[in-house]
């Protein structure tokens, strides 16, 4: 085989190997669960007064506790299991709330909060 | 599908074009055909898609495939049924026949280039780079809107930077949030290296010099700007420019090589036609490189005419005749028609020219000193490049007709003047960006210097002593080149932060309606330039709080709303800004920018992860 052709095939082979490896690395990096430890809380609807929220878990810990707090008083609380890679919605139905209403979620080590300032 | 898309978009059109022009003649070696097919494919694909809006055709997967296949089929039909002129060119195979050691060295150097770049990119392949995010917005915009963008008011974006990304995405079906944009740029970088290799081989006719270039450019400094670092950073224009400019030089050199040969007029004109075609491709791809090319080529031409003073008239007449020959003129005419009537690049305006020409308005545009250049290109490469430049000048009087020697010298000299003494040429461009271009010609000159030094030593010392001396120089170069690469490897893994940026962007996109406005922070968020790809509403959506120093730049006064709305959201100024811009979603880092929002009761914290919180302005 011509040397030029050998060089061409060599370049193609190296690129294919490199790109397969880099695709694999990028898939790992963009995989929310691969060697990562994080979780998210968010209101299901950002704009209205509904306090229903979601926990999306990408950590090894599956057990979360949550509470709804208004003016330093816990209005509702519970525990919930959310598997890795899962997102669970929690429906909250509390009427006549005013001022800042906080949703605090903890995985036992860290906690995160979201809140809404409801109209008086 | 990715590899099929690459073959269809970045190999087939260019290869078919070369077949239609040269048939199966040996004017170009197989390696040259392969390497040049890549650049020619990029340019051909650009031109194919420039026609689509004019023909009222949508740009989608089917139309992309049909356009490329039609173009390639037409070229292949020409190859099949046209009488390809029998070019009386000397067989080039000898130049591409390597000894066993040379052949093994080429394979080893190519392997090392791939290995080092891949190792670096494995840590930097994720879609985090700001420039890449901006560019991929436009490529995605093309795929979603099925037409070409007009970039109104943004002369820094050029259509040739985005077409291939959009077409590869359409044909392969790959998401922009994958490794494919980086891989495409990686390929551009590798092919620019290979183009330099064949350019040097043709100009110097010495395989050792070509090998040394591969070593100095591909193996050493394989990561430093403008190579793998630019690949991961998404500096598309510069990378494509560094591919297309050597391609243009290659074709111009091949034209000049045969200019004085009466029997080779047809062939030399064919190369000129390809050079003109590539010049148009360059102008459609990157304005800065095109601008640099004009200066470099003008200097080379001027010097070529001066050193060949007695033949100057003949050169000019022959060149003009070639320009208006039946091989070249149709290409020139078509290029001008495309430029004026089909698609005029958006930077092609008086205001853009005025910003590039004139007195420097910023300290970053007043020129680099020797220390800046040394750190940009490497100490040894600068020293060897300077030696190579002087050696080339010395041999120039014996090789007056070698346009290649002049081209390489002019390439280095003009870039040096433009980056160090821009005042001399009334240039108002970022000096460091021009300085980055020096690496290519300096690597060529360094390779030439190393080769000449070795030859001289061989004549004066024994062969073994000469080899030892060369080895010592190479070790010195190696130390600096590898140190540079090792430095670049110190990258932190941003994968977790990036995922959280994308997750929050997805949340905001799902909660957004037409009237909502979004503001995000650029200082503390990872991959924030990619957020706009979740919304695809406008290039400037969401608004962004830029780097703090930019708000204090006296040479470029800018709005401060984006700063106020995050840094001081309760202020009167910020309130006016919220009213004017309609911003009601704010994405910031909870540690650096959460506090000021917690104190205000008109902001709800509606989303939280460890890296980003989203606030919603509730009234």
Could you please describe the fold and organization of this structure?
The complex is a heterodimer of chains A (120) and B (619). Chain A is an alpha+beta fold and 120 residues long. Chain A starts with a helix and ends with a strand. Chain B is mainly alpha-helical and 619 residues long. Chain B has a domain of 123 residues. Chain B has a five-stranded mixed sheet, sandwiched between helices. The longest helix of chain B is centred in the last third of the chain and has 26 residues.
Give the radius of gyration of chain A. 24 Å
Number of helices of chain B: 28
The global form of chain A is: elongated
Q: Which spans of chain B of ≥5 residues are poorly predicted at pLDDT below 50?
A: none
Helical amount of chain B? 55-70%
Order of helices and strands of chain A: HEEEEEEE
Instruction: Quote the beta fraction of chain B.
Output: under 5%
Greatest interface: A-B, 46 and 56 residues
Q: Strand tally of chain B, please?
A: 5
CATH class of the largest domain in chain A: Mainly Beta
SSE map:
The complex is a heterodimer of chains A (120) and B (619).
Chain A: H1 3-30, E1 38-43, E2 53-58, E3 63-70, E4 73-81, E5 87-90, E6 99-106, E7 111-118
Antiparallel strand pairs in A: 1-2, 2-5, 3-4, 3-6, 6-7
Chain B: H1 2-10, H2 12-22, H3 30-54, H4 61-81, H5 100-121, H6 130-145, H7 163-172, H8 180-204, H9 207-219, H10 228-233, H11 236-259, H12 265-283, H13 287-307, H14 312-323, H15 329-342, H16 350-356, H17 370-377, H18 379-396, H19 403-420, H20 431-437, H21 439-460, H22 463-488, H23 495-510, E1 517-521, H24 532-535, E2 543-545, H25 561-567, H26 572-581, E3 583-588, H27 590-593, H28 595-598, E4 603-608, E5 613-617
Parallel strand pairs in B: 1-2, 1-3
Antiparallel strand pairs in B: 3-5, 4-5
Helix pairs in contact in B: 1-7, 2-3, 2-4, 3-8, 3-12, 5-9, 6-7, 8-9, 8-11, 9-21, 11-12, 11-13, 12-15, 13-19, 18-19, 18-21, 19-20, 19-21, 21-22, 25-26
């Amino acid at each position: 085989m011509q040397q030029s052709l050998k060089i061409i095939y060599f370049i193609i082979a190296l690129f294919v190997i490199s790109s397969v490896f880099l695709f694999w690395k990028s898939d790992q990096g963009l995989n929310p669960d691969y060697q990562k430890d994080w979780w998210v809380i968010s209101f299901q609807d950002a704009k209205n007064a509904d306090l229903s929220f979601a926990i999306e878990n990408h950590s090894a810990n599956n057990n979360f506790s949550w509470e709804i707090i208004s003016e330093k008083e816990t209005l509702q609380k519970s525990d919930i299991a959310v598997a890795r890679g899962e997102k669970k919605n929690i429906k909250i139905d509390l009427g006549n709330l005013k001022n800042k209403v906080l949703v605090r979620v903890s995985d036992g080590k860290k906690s995160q909060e979201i809140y809404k300032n409801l109209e008086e | 599908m990715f590899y099929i898309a690459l073959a269809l978009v970045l190999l087939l059109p260019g290869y078919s074009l070369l077949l239609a022009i040269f048939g199966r003649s040996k004017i170009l070696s197989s390696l040259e055909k392969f390497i040049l097919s890549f650049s020619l494919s990029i340019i051909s694909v650009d031109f194919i898609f420039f026609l689509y809006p004019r023909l009222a055709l949508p740009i989608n997967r089917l139309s992309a495939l049909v356009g490329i296949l039609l173009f390639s089929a037409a070229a292949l039909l020409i190859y099949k049924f046209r009488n390809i002129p029998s070019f009386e060119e000397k067989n080039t195979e000898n130049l591409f026949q390597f000894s066993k050691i040379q052949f093994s060295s080429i394979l080893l150097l190519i392997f090392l280039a791939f290995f080092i770049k891949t190792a670096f990119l494995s840590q930097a392949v994720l879609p985090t780079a700001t420039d890449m995010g901006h560019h991929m917005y436009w490529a995605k915009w093309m795929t979603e809107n099925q037409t070409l963008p007009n970039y109104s008011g943004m002369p820094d974006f050029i259509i040739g930077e985005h077409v291939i990304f959009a077409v590869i995405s359409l044909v392969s079906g790959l998401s922009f949030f994958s490794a494919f944009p980086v891989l495409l740029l990686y390929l551009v970088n590798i092919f620019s290296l290979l183009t330099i290799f064949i350019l040097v081989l043709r100009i110097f006719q010495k395989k050792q010099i070509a090998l040394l270039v591969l070593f100095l450019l591909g193996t050493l400094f394989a990561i430093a700007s403008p190579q793998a670092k630019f690949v991961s950073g998404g500096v598309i224009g510069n990378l494509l420019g560094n591919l297309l400019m050597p391609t243009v030089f290659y074709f111009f050199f091949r034209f000049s090589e045969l200019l004085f040969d009466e029997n080779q007029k047809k062939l030399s004109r064919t190369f000129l036609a390809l050079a003109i075609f590539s010049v148009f491709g360059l102008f459609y791809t990157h304005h800065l490189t095109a601008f640099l090319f004009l200066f470099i080529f003008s200097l080379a031409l001027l010097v070529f005419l001066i050193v060949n003073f007695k033949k100057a008239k003949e050169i000019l007449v022959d060149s003009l005749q070639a320009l208006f020959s039946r091989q070249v003129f149709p290409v020139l005419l078509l290029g001008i028609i495309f430029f004026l009537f089909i698609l005029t690049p958006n930077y092609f305006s008086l205001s853009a020219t005025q910003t590039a020409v004139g007195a420097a308005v910023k300290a970053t545009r007043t020129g680099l000193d020797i220390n800046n250049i040394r750190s940009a290109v490497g100490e040894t490469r600068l020293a060897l490049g300077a030696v190579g430049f002087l050696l080339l000048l010395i041999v120039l009087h014996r090789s007056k007709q070698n346009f290649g020697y002049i081209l390489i010298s002019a390439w280095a000299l003009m870039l040096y003047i433009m980056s160090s003494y821009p005042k001399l040429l009334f240039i108002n461009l970022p000096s460091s960006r021009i300085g980055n271009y020096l690496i290519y010609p300096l690597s060529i000159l360094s390779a030439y210097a190393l080769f000449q030094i070795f030859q001289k030593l061989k004549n004066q010392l024994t062969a073994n002593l000469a080899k030892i001396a060369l080895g010592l120089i190479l070790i010195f170069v190696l130390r600096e080149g590898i140190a540079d690469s090792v430095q670049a490897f110190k990258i932190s893994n941003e994968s977790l932060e990036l995922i959280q940026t994308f997750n929050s962007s997805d949340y905001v996109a799902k909660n957004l309606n037409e009237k909502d406005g979004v503001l995000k922070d650029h200082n503390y968020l990872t991959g924030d330039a990619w957020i706009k790809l979740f919304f695809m509403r406008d290039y400037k959506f969401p608004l962004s709080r830029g780097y703090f120093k930019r708000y204090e730049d006296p040479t470029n006064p800018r709005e401060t709303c984006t700063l106020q709305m995050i840094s001081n959201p309760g202020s009167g100024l910020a309130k006016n800004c919220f009213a004017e811009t309609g911003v009601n979603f704010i994405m910031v880092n909870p540690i650096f920018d959460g506090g000021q929002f917690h104190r205000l009761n008109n902001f709800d914290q509606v989303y939280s992860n460890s890296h980003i919180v989203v606030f919603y302005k509730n009234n």
